Amino acid sequence: MHSNETDRRYTLFVGVVLFVLAVFVLRLIWVQVIDAKAINEISNEARETSRTIPAIRGNIIDSEGHILATTLISWDVNVDPKNVGPVVLTIGDQKVAFTKEEIAQKLSEILRVPTEELLTKMTGTSRYANLRKAVSAATYSKLKELDIPWVYFDKKQKRHYPDGAVAGNLLGFVGSDGSALEGIERMMNSCLAGTDGKESYIQGADLIRIPSSVQVIQQVKHGSDVVLSINSDLQYSAQQEMAATVKRLNADWASAIVIEVSTGRILAAAEAPTVDPNNFSAVKAQNRSSRIFRSAFEPGSILKTVAAATAIDAGKATPLSQVVAPYALKMPWGQYINDSHKHPPEKLTLTGVLAVSSNTGLVQLGGKVDSKTRFEYMQKFGIGSKSGVNFEGESSGLLADYTKWDRMTDQTVMFGQGVSLTPIQTADIYQTIANKGVRLSPVLIEGCQDRNGNLTRTAVDSPVRVLSEKSASDTMDMLEKVVEFGSIGKTARIPGYRIGGKTGTAQIAEGKGYGRLFAVSFVGVAPAENPRYVVAVTAFRSRNISNSLGATPGFVAIMKQVLKTYTVPPTTTKSKKIATEWK
Amino acid sequence: MSVLRQAQPIRPIAPRRHLRPVSTRVQPVRRTAVKTTSQVGTVRLFLSKTIVRKLLVGLTGVALLSLFVNSLCDGAVYKISSLKQETAVLATQSQIIGQQVDSLRSPQNLSNSAKALGMVVNSDPVFLNVREAKVLGSAVPASASATKAVSANLIANAAMTYRSNPATLNSTKKTTIDAPTLKTPVKPSVKPAKTVTTKLALTPAGIPASPTN
Fold first, then answer.
1. Could you list the residue range(s) of the whole structural domain that residue A133 is in?
2. Chains A, B: CB contacts under 8 A, how many?
3. Closest residue by Cα to residue A557 from A277, A243, A175, A252
4. With a cut of 0.90, is the ipTM above it?
5. Is the residue at A64 inside a domain?
6. Domain range summary for chain B, segments of one domain joined by +
7. CA–CA separation, A347 vs A350, rounded Å?
8. Which residues in chain B are closer than 8 Å to A4, comparing Cβ atoms?
9. Partners of residue A166 in chain B, C-beta under 8 Å
10. Does A419 lie in the same domain as A280?
């Protein structure tokens, strides 16, 4: 009897438990299956949150691995004006009460914003006021130590250029919203930018994320690095020289390019004035980009080398071809071509024509080549087309088709008038001659390097054979005589080295004619017996010196630095003997 | 189902009725121990009680284990959160130090420091060809006047928030560096083309002190 009672109770207990379980199971099925979607939505709205994982923009690095542009974290400092009031701060072991005004004073010292301005922003009933945007980690750290309850921070990415204006003309800059605005930053944005990621997660009542709830919706892909051919030390030296040149000549601007002959790599592309990308709004708009790639102007006598090389390669002249060069040469149609200074008729060889930079001598010898052939050679030298760099906003210069040349233009293009070139195109011409007649596409951007160090090289144009090796060698020999015997060319000498180069004093088109100021330049190659480097210096609208004497000191200083940087030993050979005059 | 059936009140189970073939052959009588229906019910009840107990103990165990794991996870969550905050602080400090290093090693700061120390650029390098014992180039002392135009920094850098203190640099103590000596003779991998007799400026005492320090 007793056993039966126990069994009955037990059975009842189990029955109740099973009933409750059944209710739970049914409810579970209802929640998990039948009404799951609606409940999930309500639940997600209440507890689930998502966030964007910003991709970190890649670095821009030079040929030596030195970082020229990188990404740091910065903080916007904000307040909640509605809650602004006295604060008790812990100073040492003591708690000290501060008034709103005293706090504003402290903030002013850290943020370097006037106290009055801060107080104005801190007053009101709104819930947000920005005190200062994009403060550094040091400033943020100081503010964080104060631990003011109504001051809060928004974290963002900030582009940082550790070397300031070094290569600023090339790097470009990004806006405060992170958008690439100029230069390589813009040009290589697809490599640098990366892709933002997204994840969702459930957070607890204390806003702490529940780890197992994190779901990656989109994987973040950080930006890759852009590797440049630039040597930043050399770039700095060249920029220093150009800044000094602008000051010395009172010029509008000056530029210097260093190219490695055998590879076409641009080792320095310096300009002054230029931009510090950390503070780009501080400079005028025209100084925020690269004139080396964008500014095309008539190059003047620098281009005589092309006419002379063409004549030699076309078999119409040799370095010893003779000509009588008067000061003024009357053309068959009655117009005159003059030299830059008055002189009696000179008996010059083609080498001598280049050495004294005679217009009248050149048009006689260079003119032996027909217009079409000269035009084709100019095209092969890269004139009239963009360099292979394809820099942001690059100019292709201007080379009209030879059929559109009038009779004077047909002559003047030989000495650099009626045609316009960018500084990079000019430097590329001398790279061609120095590289045994083969033009290489200039390289500024080596490629895009991912986070594992895999470099995807930038595509470059195929090399172009412009001159035969013999013609290029003859032209180099003539350029050496410019530095040996030219009145201005002599100032480009570097003791211990054989240098070849050419001067240029170009009139600058203004309105319908030419202005009174000049673009003075010098392009040189060293060492001439085994050319390794081209340095091209230009000063635009020089007011103090109106010939290449304004450019040669900069050339010498930069070329010396190049030879020292790449440990090029002084030469042990002598130049060929080539007559510059005849009797 | 079995639990339900087992939980029913125990009553005698009626024998099943159905036709079955009957052998006409006389079978030897076997005495077997036959359990009564009451005994069978008791066994089943005992078994079912055991199962239910085990089930309840198991469920309680699982619940306790779950509670324990949950508390561990919660603790880990707060630990992770705390470590993340610590990482953020360290990242900020790292950035501050990184920016200081960037400023101090920037070419602008180096140029200014070099100038403050009285250093000038020597743009006429001399190369020593050790194999041929030749000096290439002419050694010309560097002069301040030759590099005057560009010795001061002319390049802007808004990111240079820290600068070297030239006074500190000047007060740096002189350090004597011993000339390296080879303890064991090294056999040259390439035989020299000819024996070269040269006079070395280096004294046995080591590298002479630089006049410019």
1. 72-159
2. 135
3. A243
4. no
5. no
6. 2-8+38-105, 111-169
7. 10
8. 9-10
9. 107, 155, 157
10. yes
